[in-house]
Design brief:
single chain, about 500 residues, mainly alpha, 2 domains, four-stranded mixed beta sheet, 4 strands, globular
């Protein structure tokens, strides 16, 4: 049996040879079969496209556009610059981000004297890698890495350097996922309230160091835009567009509550019982991060599976570190077997991957791969293509989306954002007409027999149907794979 003390770092040899390997290979085992699937989540596909534009020398938001902060695109761009057009490299980067987060959790456990550090770290690896779209490299995975790293420096000795580094890492987290923007002020507020015995001068100095680090990261992220005299593009895209998006949702209070009540109840109950049991610094900070992040879920009226990645590590800290009184003592081999047994979704994907390789002679698979193979077989892959769905297909064909509004398929149905990325049209119908009439794509790809970004029966959808019936002919129709391809007459 490997003791939990050894697992949390008292034996360096064991830490390197067993615990570290368990966490790394658990992440790799669960995620590896999804390395070769083209389309896992629409957001990940968009990050890859945006990263490619950065790798090609464009500023984020300049050539393409998406409603996410720029740090993501710089990171994806770096990967794509070093490893051009490699799904494997991007997905392996996701493994490293999750593994890195789990290692930071182990260090947080040691720094806080927390029990069950290995279970905290392993539970994050599992929860952030299973179930639905989290097999992709999501903004949440990268933001969590920076948030945990910032938290580790924040709970260390309050030196100016530690706090400055914590602020920089917090800034990176926010520039990957704006939801954490509420957590940072909450952490600083806690610092002021809990640190009153230190004196106001020390508190202000410490807060100033943290804030300075955060501001420096924002300045560094904005500096390429300042150099190229495109500050307005940065400010509009990073600050004004998200605010406009929040205002435009117009979701009634009761509907927001209906969609998010379960997670609000769960984290409120967890926070209450943990706070009642202990008021130590780490659980208090974890509670603040969880509650402020869940508030952002409520404010948008949505809780997607990958949203929860943002709170998983902090919930694990509260549950395994402080709420459960027992200190578990599992052996690494037993934990490895447990991970293998619960990785049902991954095992199914391994089977599908092997079957696909046997039938097609390649590991790479997915709907855009299928669609692109059809286009290549017909000699149509070099034309102007409008991917109404599966837009990762642009990247595989070394193409760009036709407009900023088609970078992500949902952009075109958000006309209130057009002014922030320079679209010349004021509404979705005008933008659709611009795409179909002025750009005039040679090929249209959709997952339905209509443009799925518009609800069936809407004016935009009826217009697209009429244009496609008049000017295009369908050349591939596969309702099982959900692939429909039209060619211009």
């Amino acid at each position: 049996m490997v003791s939990m003390q050894a697992n949390t770092g008292h034996s360096k040899k064991n830490f390197v040879s067993s615990t570290t390997l368990l966490l790394f290979f658990s992440a790799l085992l669960i995620r590896l079969p999804f390395f070769f699937r083209d389309y896992i989540d629409g957001d990940e596909s968009t990050f890859i496209l945006m990263g490619q534009s950065v790798a090609d020398g464009y500023l984020p938001y300049d050539r393409l556009w998406d409603l996410k902060p720029p740090m993501l695109f710089y990171l994806f761009g770096l990967i794509e610059y070093v490893f051009p057009h490699s799904f494997f490299a991007i997905r392996f980067f996701g493994v490293l981000a999750i593994f890195g987060s789990s290692m930071i959790l182990l260090n947080i456990a040691r720094a806080a004297g927390m029990k069950n550090g290995l279970l905290v770290a392993l539970s994050y690896v599992i929860l952030s890698s299973m179930f639905g779209s989290v097999q992709g490299v999501m903004s949440e995975h990268i933001a969590v890495f920076f948030m945990l790293a910032g938290l580790l420096f924040f709970i260390k000795n309050k030196t100016a350097l530690n706090l400055f580094i914590a602020g920089m890492l917090f800034g990176c987290a926010v520039l990957c996922k704006m939801n954490y923007g509420y957590a940072i002020p909450a952490i600083l507020l806690y610092h002021f309230i809990a640190g009153r015995p230190q004196g106001i001068v020390a508190l202000v100095k410490n807060a100033a160091c943290t804030v300075a680090g955060t501001l420096l990261i924002f300045l560094l992220a904005a500096s390429p835009f300042l150099i190229h005299d495109k500050w307005k593009l940065f400010f509009d895209s990073v600050f004004l567009a998200p605010l406009e998006y929040s205002r435009a949702m117009h979701i009634p209070f009761l509907l927001k509550l209906k969609k998010t009540w379960w997670v609000i109840v769960a984290v409120s109950g967890l926070s209450f019982f943990t706070f009642k049991k202990t008021r130590q610094k780490l659980p208090s900070l974890s509670i603040l991060i969880v509650l402020t992040t869940v508030y952002t879920f409520f404010s948008t009226g949505a809780v997607n599976g990958h949203y929860l990645v943002q709170v998983y590590p902090f919930i694990a800290i509260l549950v395994f570190g402080f709420l459960i009184p027992k200190e578990f003592d599992p052996s690494v081999p037993k934990l490895a077997i447990f991970v293998f047994l619960i990785s049902v979704e991954s095992m199914i994907e391994y089977y599908r991957l092997g079957k696909h390789y046997h039938e097609e002679g390649t590991l790479y698979n997915g709907r855009s791969v299928y669609a692109n193979n059809v286009l290549k077989a017909k000699g149509l892959a070099s034309g102007k293509i409008f991917f109404a769905d599966y837009h990762i297909g642009y990247w595989s064909l070394r193409q760009y989306p036709l407009t900023k509004s088609t970078t992500h398929p949902s952009n075109i149905i958000r006309p209130y954002l057009f002014k922030y990325f320079g679209a010349g049209n004021s509404n979705s119908m005008q933008e659709l007409k611009y795409i179909l009439n002025e750009i005039g794509p040679d090929i249209i790809v959709s997952k339905y027999d209509y443009l799925a970004m518009f609800n069936k029966g809407t004016a935009e959808n009826l217009y697209a149907d009429s244009v496609m019936a008049d000017r295009y002919r369908i050349i591939q129709e596969d309702p099982v794979k959900r692939i429909y391809i039209w060619q211009k007459r």
